Amino acid sequence: MSTPGSRYGGFGLDHLPYGVFSVAGGERRVGVRLGDTVLDLHALTGRAEFAAPTLNVFLALGPEVWRQTREQVAALAADAEGIELADATLHLPFEVADYVDFYASEHHAANVGRILRPGQEPLAPNWRHLPVGYHGRAGTVVASGTPVVRPAGQRRDPGAEAPVHGPTRQLDLEAELGFVVGVPSPPGVPVPYAAFSEHVFGVVGLNDWSARDIQAWESRPLGPFLGKSFATSIAAWVTPLAALDAAWCDLPPQQPRPLDYLGPGHVRGLDVAVEVEVDGEVLSRPRFRDMYWSPAQLLAQLTANGAALRTGDLFGSGTISGPAPDQLGCLLELYAGERFLADGARVVLRYSAPGTSGAPITLGEVSGVVRPA
Asked: 251 Cβ partners below 8 Å, 6+ apart?
Protein backbone atom coordinates (compact mmCIF):
# COMPACT_ATOMS: atom_id res chain seq x y z
CA MET A 1 0.00 0.00 0.00
CA SER A 2 1.39 3.41 -0.95
CA THR A 3 1.56 6.23 1.58
CA PRO A 4 1.33 10.01 1.12
CA GLY A 5 5.10 10.21 1.39
CA SER A 6 6.09 7.35 -0.91
CA ARG A 7 3.69 8.36 -3.69
CA TYR A 8 5.45 11.70 -4.09
CA GLY A 9 9.01 10.56 -3.48
CA GLY A 10 9.29 11.96 0.03
CA PHE A 11 7.61 15.27 -0.88
CA GLY A 12 4.04 14.20 -0.19
CA LEU A 13 1.02 15.50 1.69
CA ASP A 14 2.70 14.60 4.99
CA HIS A 15 5.59 16.93 4.15
CA LEU A 16 4.59 20.03 2.14
CA PRO A 17 7.76 22.12 2.62
CA TYR A 18 7.62 25.84 1.89
CA GLY A 19 9.78 27.76 -0.55
CA VAL A 20 9.90 30.78 -2.85
CA PHE A 21 9.83 30.40 -6.63
CA SER A 22 9.39 32.30 -9.87
CA VAL A 23 8.57 31.24 -13.41
CA ALA A 24 10.17 32.70 -16.55
CA GLY A 25 11.57 35.70 -14.72
CA GLY A 26 8.23 36.63 -13.17
CA GLU A 27 7.48 37.77 -9.65
CA ARG A 28 8.54 35.66 -6.72
CA ARG A 29 5.78 33.82 -4.89
CA VAL A 30 5.53 31.48 -1.92
CA GLY A 31 4.83 27.86 -2.75
CA VAL A 32 4.87 24.36 -1.34
CA ARG A 33 6.44 21.37 -2.98
CA LEU A 34 4.33 18.33 -3.80
CA GLY A 35 6.30 15.63 -5.57
CA ASP A 36 8.00 17.22 -8.58
CA THR A 37 5.62 20.17 -8.70
CA VAL A 38 5.31 23.52 -6.93
CA LEU A 39 1.91 24.73 -5.76
CA ASP A 40 1.45 28.51 -5.90
CA LEU A 41 -0.02 29.26 -2.47
CA HIS A 42 -1.36 32.68 -3.43
CA ALA A 43 -3.28 31.16 -6.33
CA LEU A 44 -4.38 28.21 -4.21
CA THR A 45 -5.55 30.12 -1.13
CA GLY A 46 -5.93 33.75 -2.20
CA ARG A 47 -4.03 34.87 0.90
CA ALA A 48 -1.97 38.04 0.61
CA GLU A 49 1.00 36.80 2.64
CA PHE A 50 1.74 34.26 -0.09
CA ALA A 51 2.14 36.94 -2.75
CA ALA A 52 5.21 38.17 -0.84
CA PRO A 53 8.71 37.49 -2.26
CA THR A 54 9.82 35.76 0.98
CA LEU A 55 8.32 33.56 3.68
CA ASN A 56 8.88 36.16 6.41
CA VAL A 57 5.35 37.57 6.52
CA PHE A 58 3.92 34.07 6.92
CA LEU A 59 6.59 33.01 9.42
CA ALA A 60 5.69 35.89 11.75
CA LEU A 61 2.03 34.79 12.04
CA GLY A 62 2.78 32.06 14.56
CA PRO A 63 1.98 28.42 15.36
CA GLU A 64 -1.81 28.56 15.17
CA VAL A 65 -1.76 30.09 11.69
CA TRP A 66 0.97 27.65 10.66
CA ARG A 67 -1.23 24.76 11.79
CA GLN A 68 -4.38 26.05 10.10
CA THR A 69 -2.48 26.76 6.89
CA ARG A 70 -1.00 23.29 6.80
CA GLU A 71 -4.46 21.75 7.16
CA GLN A 72 -5.89 24.04 4.48
CA VAL A 73 -3.10 23.35 2.00
CA ALA A 74 -3.22 19.59 2.60
CA ALA A 75 -6.95 19.60 1.88
CA LEU A 76 -6.50 21.54 -1.38
CA ALA A 77 -3.18 20.17 -2.61
CA ALA A 78 -4.17 16.75 -3.92
CA ASP A 79 -6.53 18.26 -6.51
CA ALA A 80 -4.46 21.35 -7.31
CA GLU A 81 -2.59 21.82 -10.56
CA GLY A 82 1.06 22.45 -9.83
CA ILE A 83 3.91 24.00 -11.75
CA GLU A 84 6.57 21.57 -12.88
CA LEU A 85 9.63 21.90 -10.68
CA ALA A 86 11.81 21.92 -13.79
CA ASP A 87 10.02 25.07 -14.99
CA ALA A 88 10.46 26.98 -11.72
CA THR A 89 13.43 28.96 -10.42
CA LEU A 90 13.94 28.51 -6.68
CA HIS A 91 15.16 31.35 -4.47
CA LEU A 92 16.33 31.91 -0.91
CA PRO A 93 13.12 31.00 0.93
CA PHE A 94 13.24 33.69 3.64
CA GLU A 95 15.10 36.88 4.38
CA VAL A 96 17.71 35.97 6.98
CA ALA A 97 17.66 38.35 9.95
CA ASP A 98 20.54 37.03 12.08
CA TYR A 99 22.62 33.90 11.63
CA VAL A 100 24.22 31.94 14.46
CA ASP A 101 26.16 28.69 14.13
CA PHE A 102 26.62 26.25 17.00
CA TYR A 103 29.07 23.43 17.72
CA ALA A 104 26.57 20.89 19.07
CA SER A 105 28.15 17.53 18.14
CA GLU A 106 30.48 16.08 20.76
CA HIS A 107 31.90 13.67 18.18
CA HIS A 108 32.75 16.52 15.81
CA ALA A 109 34.17 18.78 18.53
CA ALA A 110 36.31 15.98 19.96
CA ASN A 111 37.57 14.85 16.55
CA VAL A 112 38.56 18.39 15.57
CA GLY A 113 40.24 18.88 18.95
CA ARG A 114 42.35 15.74 18.46
CA ILE A 115 43.37 16.82 14.94
CA LEU A 116 44.23 20.42 15.77
CA ARG A 117 45.52 19.95 19.34
CA PRO A 118 47.13 16.50 19.50
CA GLY A 119 48.06 15.35 22.97
CA GLN A 120 45.69 17.80 24.65
CA GLU A 121 42.19 17.42 26.02
CA PRO A 122 40.06 17.56 22.85
CA LEU A 123 37.12 19.43 24.40
CA ALA A 124 37.39 22.86 26.03
CA PRO A 125 36.36 22.96 29.72
CA ASN A 126 33.09 24.74 28.91
CA TRP A 127 31.96 22.43 26.10
CA ARG A 128 29.73 20.06 28.09
CA HIS A 129 28.26 22.91 30.12
CA LEU A 130 26.86 25.09 27.32
CA PRO A 131 26.25 24.99 23.58
CA VAL A 132 29.21 26.85 22.07
CA GLY A 133 28.40 29.09 19.10
CA TYR A 134 29.41 32.14 17.09
CA HIS A 135 27.64 34.85 15.08
CA GLY A 136 27.85 34.59 11.31
CA ARG A 137 26.92 36.86 8.40
CA ALA A 138 23.23 36.83 7.45
CA GLY A 139 24.06 38.50 4.14
CA THR A 140 26.19 35.58 2.97
CA VAL A 141 23.49 32.93 3.41
CA VAL A 142 22.60 31.70 -0.09
CA ALA A 143 20.12 29.29 -1.63
CA SER A 144 21.08 25.77 -2.64
CA GLY A 145 22.63 25.72 -6.10
CA THR A 146 24.41 29.06 -5.73
CA PRO A 147 28.10 28.67 -6.70
CA VAL A 148 30.62 29.31 -3.93
CA VAL A 149 33.70 31.34 -4.84
CA ARG A 150 36.87 30.18 -3.12
CA PRO A 151 37.51 32.80 -0.43
CA ALA A 152 40.77 34.62 0.21
CA GLY A 153 42.21 35.68 3.52
CA GLN A 154 45.28 35.57 5.70
CA ARG A 155 46.81 32.20 6.41
CA ARG A 156 50.13 31.05 7.79
CA ASP A 157 51.40 28.07 5.88
CA PRO A 158 53.12 25.18 7.72
CA GLY A 159 56.71 26.08 8.60
CA ALA A 160 56.28 29.74 7.68
CA GLU A 161 57.02 32.51 10.16
CA ALA A 162 54.80 35.16 8.59
CA PRO A 163 51.31 35.01 7.09
CA VAL A 164 50.37 35.57 3.47
CA HIS A 165 47.12 36.71 1.87
CA GLY A 166 45.54 34.57 -0.77
CA PRO A 167 42.90 31.97 -1.62
CA THR A 168 42.26 29.26 0.95
CA ARG A 169 43.96 25.95 0.32
CA GLN A 170 41.70 24.13 2.77
CA LEU A 171 38.12 24.73 1.68
CA ASP A 172 35.76 22.43 3.57
CA LEU A 173 32.09 21.59 3.84
CA GLU A 174 30.06 21.24 7.03
CA ALA A 175 26.90 19.13 6.98
CA GLU A 176 24.44 20.78 9.35
CA LEU A 177 20.77 21.26 10.10
CA GLY A 178 19.42 24.81 10.28
CA PHE A 179 16.47 26.05 12.34
CA VAL A 180 14.26 28.89 11.08
CA VAL A 181 12.68 31.31 13.57
CA GLY A 182 9.20 32.60 12.86
CA VAL A 183 7.88 34.34 15.97
CA PRO A 184 10.13 37.05 17.46
CA SER A 185 10.77 37.63 21.16
CA PRO A 186 11.16 40.92 23.06
CA PRO A 187 14.61 42.15 24.10
CA GLY A 188 15.62 41.23 27.61
CA VAL A 189 13.36 38.16 27.82
CA PRO A 190 15.11 34.77 27.44
CA VAL A 191 13.19 32.12 25.50
CA PRO A 192 12.90 28.92 27.62
CA TYR A 193 13.73 25.56 26.08
CA ALA A 194 10.07 24.52 26.47
CA ALA A 195 8.99 27.34 24.11
CA PHE A 196 10.95 26.00 21.14
CA SER A 197 7.90 25.18 19.00
CA GLU A 198 6.30 28.55 19.80
CA HIS A 199 9.09 30.35 17.96
CA VAL A 200 10.73 27.93 15.51
CA PHE A 201 8.82 27.28 12.30
CA GLY A 202 10.93 24.58 10.71
CA VAL A 203 14.27 23.24 9.51
CA VAL A 204 16.51 23.49 6.46
CA GLY A 205 19.52 21.57 5.29
CA LEU A 206 22.62 23.71 5.77
CA ASN A 207 26.23 23.68 4.58
CA ASP A 208 28.42 26.11 6.50
CA TRP A 209 31.42 26.24 4.15
CA SER A 210 34.73 26.71 5.96
CA ALA A 211 38.23 27.86 5.02
CA ARG A 212 40.21 25.86 7.56
CA ASP A 213 43.62 27.52 7.08
CA ILE A 214 42.18 31.03 7.30
CA GLN A 215 40.09 29.97 10.28
CA ALA A 216 43.06 28.44 12.12
CA TRP A 217 45.19 31.60 11.80
CA GLU A 218 42.52 34.19 12.64
CA SER A 219 40.51 32.37 15.32
CA ARG A 220 42.72 33.00 18.34
CA PRO A 221 41.59 34.49 20.62
CA LEU A 222 38.13 35.52 19.36
CA GLY A 223 36.99 32.65 17.15
CA PRO A 224 35.84 32.28 13.53
CA PHE A 225 35.61 35.31 11.25
CA LEU A 226 36.52 35.44 7.53
CA GLY A 227 37.17 31.71 7.43
CA LYS A 228 33.45 31.10 7.96
CA SER A 229 31.57 34.20 6.82
CA PHE A 230 31.94 34.01 3.04
CA ALA A 231 29.07 31.58 2.30
CA THR A 232 26.49 29.44 4.05
CA SER A 233 24.21 27.42 1.76
CA ILE A 234 20.70 26.38 2.78
CA ALA A 235 18.02 24.30 1.11
CA ALA A 236 15.40 26.04 -1.01
CA TRP A 237 12.67 24.22 0.95
CA VAL A 238 11.84 24.80 4.62
CA THR A 239 10.34 21.72 6.28
CA PRO A 240 7.80 22.74 8.94
CA LEU A 241 8.21 21.21 12.39
CA ALA A 242 4.75 19.65 12.00
CA ALA A 243 6.11 17.40 9.24
CA LEU A 244 8.71 16.08 11.71
CA ASP A 245 6.32 15.01 14.47
CA ALA A 246 7.38 11.37 14.00
CA ALA A 247 11.11 12.18 13.91
CA TRP A 248 11.67 13.31 17.51
CA CYS A 249 13.96 11.01 19.48
CA ASP A 250 16.10 10.91 22.61
CA LEU A 251 19.65 12.19 22.31
CA PRO A 252 22.67 10.69 24.12
CA PRO A 253 22.90 11.33 27.89
CA GLN A 254 24.49 14.60 29.00
CA GLN A 255 27.14 14.58 31.72
CA PRO A 256 27.61 16.64 33.78
CA ARG A 257 24.01 17.72 34.27
CA PRO A 258 23.36 20.98 32.39
CA LEU A 259 22.16 24.02 34.27
CA ASP A 260 18.41 24.30 34.74
CA TYR A 261 17.82 26.87 31.99
CA LEU A 262 19.04 24.27 29.47
CA GLY A 263 16.32 21.78 30.41
CA PRO A 264 18.20 18.74 31.74
CA GLY A 265 16.07 15.63 31.40
CA HIS A 266 14.15 17.05 28.42
CA VAL A 267 16.78 16.50 25.74
CA ARG A 268 15.11 15.57 22.46
CA GLY A 269 16.55 15.66 18.97
CA LEU A 270 15.50 14.73 15.45
CA ASP A 271 16.09 11.44 13.67
CA VAL A 272 17.36 13.12 10.51
CA ALA A 273 19.74 11.14 8.31
CA VAL A 274 22.26 13.04 6.20
CA GLU A 275 24.20 11.98 3.11
CA VAL A 276 27.39 13.84 2.15
CA GLU A 277 28.35 13.62 -1.51
CA VAL A 278 31.34 15.21 -3.28
CA ASP A 279 31.72 14.88 -7.05
CA GLY A 280 29.21 12.04 -7.18
CA GLU A 281 30.84 9.99 -4.40
CA VAL A 282 29.00 9.49 -1.11
CA LEU A 283 31.62 10.06 1.59
CA SER A 284 29.59 9.74 4.78
CA ARG A 285 26.15 9.38 6.33
CA PRO A 286 25.93 11.27 9.64
CA ARG A 287 22.81 11.22 11.83
CA PHE A 288 21.39 14.15 13.75
CA ARG A 289 20.26 11.78 16.50
CA ASP A 290 23.93 11.52 17.59
CA MET A 291 24.16 15.22 18.50
CA TYR A 292 24.93 16.19 22.11
CA TRP A 293 22.99 19.45 22.43
CA SER A 294 19.32 19.54 21.43
CA PRO A 295 17.61 22.12 19.19
CA ALA A 296 15.64 23.49 22.17
CA GLN A 297 18.86 23.90 24.17
CA LEU A 298 20.44 25.80 21.29
CA LEU A 299 17.52 28.23 21.27
CA ALA A 300 17.65 28.62 25.07
CA GLN A 301 21.37 29.38 24.92
CA LEU A 302 20.92 31.78 22.01
CA THR A 303 18.54 33.94 24.07
CA ALA A 304 19.83 33.25 27.61
CA ASN A 305 21.30 36.76 27.89
CA GLY A 306 18.06 38.37 26.77
CA ALA A 307 19.00 38.64 23.10
CA ALA A 308 15.82 39.07 21.06
CA LEU A 309 14.69 36.73 18.32
CA ARG A 310 13.63 38.19 14.97
CA THR A 311 11.51 36.68 12.23
CA GLY A 312 13.92 35.05 9.81
CA ASP A 313 16.63 34.29 12.35
CA LEU A 314 18.58 31.18 11.39
CA PHE A 315 20.67 29.06 13.73
CA GLY A 316 22.75 26.11 12.61
CA SER A 317 23.52 22.97 14.58
CA GLY A 318 27.18 22.87 13.72
CA THR A 319 28.69 19.89 11.91
CA ILE A 320 26.71 16.69 12.35
CA SER A 321 29.07 13.81 13.12
CA GLY A 322 28.62 10.40 14.69
CA PRO A 323 30.86 7.83 16.36
CA ALA A 324 31.72 5.81 13.22
CA PRO A 325 34.26 6.68 10.50
CA ASP A 326 31.48 6.82 7.89
CA GLN A 327 29.40 9.24 9.99
CA LEU A 328 31.64 12.32 9.86
CA GLY A 329 30.22 15.58 8.56
CA CYS A 330 33.26 17.44 7.19
CA LEU A 331 36.45 16.70 5.24
CA LEU A 332 38.69 17.82 8.11
CA GLU A 333 37.43 14.86 10.12
CA LEU A 334 37.14 12.42 7.22
CA TYR A 335 40.72 12.95 6.01
CA ALA A 336 42.48 14.36 9.10
CA GLY A 337 43.34 17.56 7.27
CA GLU A 338 44.91 15.87 4.25
CA ARG A 339 42.15 16.47 1.67
CA PHE A 340 39.92 19.44 0.96
CA LEU A 341 37.71 20.74 -1.85
CA ALA A 342 39.23 21.47 -5.25
CA ASP A 343 37.98 24.09 -7.68
CA GLY A 344 35.04 22.68 -9.58
CA ALA A 345 34.05 20.31 -6.78
CA ARG A 346 30.31 19.75 -6.47
CA VAL A 347 29.00 19.19 -2.94
CA VAL A 348 25.51 17.81 -2.31
CA LEU A 349 23.95 17.24 1.11
CA ARG A 350 20.79 15.12 1.24
CA TYR A 351 18.45 14.72 4.21
CA SER A 352 15.63 12.36 5.17
CA ALA A 353 13.53 11.72 8.25
CA PRO A 354 10.60 9.55 9.39
CA GLY A 355 7.31 10.99 8.17
CA THR A 356 3.98 11.02 9.94
CA SER A 357 2.51 8.68 7.31
CA GLY A 358 5.03 5.93 8.10
CA ALA A 359 7.18 6.56 5.02
CA PRO A 360 10.32 8.72 5.05
CA ILE A 361 10.15 12.33 3.97
CA THR A 362 12.92 13.88 1.91
CA LEU A 363 14.10 17.26 3.09
CA GLY A 364 15.40 19.76 0.57
CA GLU A 365 18.94 19.05 -0.55
CA VAL A 366 21.79 21.54 -0.37
CA SER A 367 24.19 21.78 -3.30
CA GLY A 368 26.98 24.05 -4.42
CA VAL A 369 29.89 24.08 -6.87
CA VAL A 370 33.26 25.60 -5.93
CA ARG A 371 34.35 28.41 -8.24
CA PRO A 372 38.00 29.55 -8.44
CA ALA A 373 39.05 32.66 -6.53
From this structure: 267, 268, 269, 289, 290, 291, 292, 294
Please state whether the peptide bond connecting residue 256 to the residue before it is cis, i.e. omega within 30 degrees of 0: yes
108 belongs to the catalytic site: yes
> Cα–chain-centroid distance for residue 291?
14
Q: Are residues 339 and 214 in contact, defined by beta-carbon separation less than 8 angstroms?
A: no
- Contacts from 278-282 at CB under 8 Å and sequence distance 24+? 278/173, 278/331, 278/341, 278/345, 278/346, 278/347, 278/348, 279/345, 279/346, 280/346
Which of 173, 220, 184 shows the shortest CA–CA distance to 310?
184
Q: What is the pTM of this model?
A: 0.97
CB 98 within 8 A of CB 135: yes
Task: Read off the pLDDT band of 20 (50, 70, 90).
Answer: very high
**Do the bridges between strand 148-149 and strand 360-371 make them parallel or antiparallel, or are there none, so unpaired?**
parallel
What's the pLDDT score for residue 2? 43
Strand 83-84, strand 37-40: pairing:
antiparallel
Please give the Cα distance from 272 to 287 (Å, whole number): 6
Q: Among residues 15, 91, 107, 108, which one is catalytic?
A: 108
